[in-house]
Amino acid sequence: MSGTLSSRTAIVTGAASGIGLAIAARLIRDGAAVFAATRSKEDLERVYEHAAIAGGFAGELHQTGVADDLVATAAQTLGHVDVLVNNAGGGVIRPTLEHTEQSLRATVDNNLWTTIYCVRAVLPDMVSCGHGRIINIGADSVRTGLVDHAMYNAAKGGVHAMVTGIAREFAGAGITANTVAPCYVRTPGLAKLLESGDAPARLMHVIEEATAIVPLGRPSDPAEIAAAVAFLAGEDGRFITGQTIYVNGGSSMG
User: Fold this and answer.
1) pLDDT (tens digit, 9 = 90+) per residue, 21-67?
2) pLDDT tens digits, residue range 230-253?
3) Element (H, E) at 40
4) How far is residue 32's CA from residue 88's CA, in Å, rounded to a whole number?
5) Which of 25, 182, 185, 217 is most deeply buried (CB count within 10 A of its CB)?
6) CB contact at 8 A, 147 and 205
7) What amino acid positions are annotated as catalytic residues?
8) pTM, entire model
C-alpha cells in the first residue's frame, strides 16, 4: 500500500473502539503497518474484524512490565516501531468529592501510568533507529475545566506535560513528542448509548456542557482526531514537537 505513511510502523493503544479504532484505520489507510493494543483478547478480535492490523496485543498497560511486553512483541512483528499513539485511557468522570480511592487510582492508572510505561518502553527502539513519533491523546478539558473532570484532568494534565520534557530530551535522537487533545467526541459507542435513552442524567449534563462551549456547535468525530494524529505521524509534521494540538471546534483558544 502506498501513502503518506508508507513503510512506517505504529503501535496504537486503546485500539478496540472509538478514537483508537479510528486512528488505527486512518494510519493503515495512509500506508502504515499498525500493531493494535487492547485490554482484552475479545477487544482485540473486534479490531481484527474492523481493521487490517499487522498484529495485536492484549493486556493491562498500567501494570508493571506489560508495556515492555507490548513493545517487544510489536517490534518483533513489525521489525521496529516508528510511531507510538498513546490512546489508551478512560477515566471515571464524576464530581470530585464523589470519587473513591478505587476510582481515583483507576483514572490515574488508565491515563497517566499507561502512557508513562508505554513511552519508556518504546524509547530505546526509537533511539536506536534515530527516528520516532510519540503522540499522546490528551483532553481539551484540561484547559476548559469541564464540569466533573477535575480528577480526570489531573491524570490527562500529566500526559500533556510529559511531551515537553520528552520532546526536548530526545530531539537529538530524531524523536518528536506531541499531544492531540480532543473535546467531547461522539464515538459510536457513546452515540448508541445516547440514542437508547438510557444515558444517566449526570452524563447527559456533562455532554450538554461539553457541547455548549464549542463555538462550532457540535462534538468532534473520531475521524477528525485520527486526521490530526496521522499528520503528526507523517513527514509533514516533522518540525512539530513538544506541542499540544487542540482538536476542539474552538472550545478553548489561544
Assistant:
1) 999 999 999 999 999 999 999 999 999 999 999 999 999 999 999 99
2) 999 999 999 999 999 999 999 999
3) none
4) 19
5) 182
6) yes
7) 152
8) 0.94
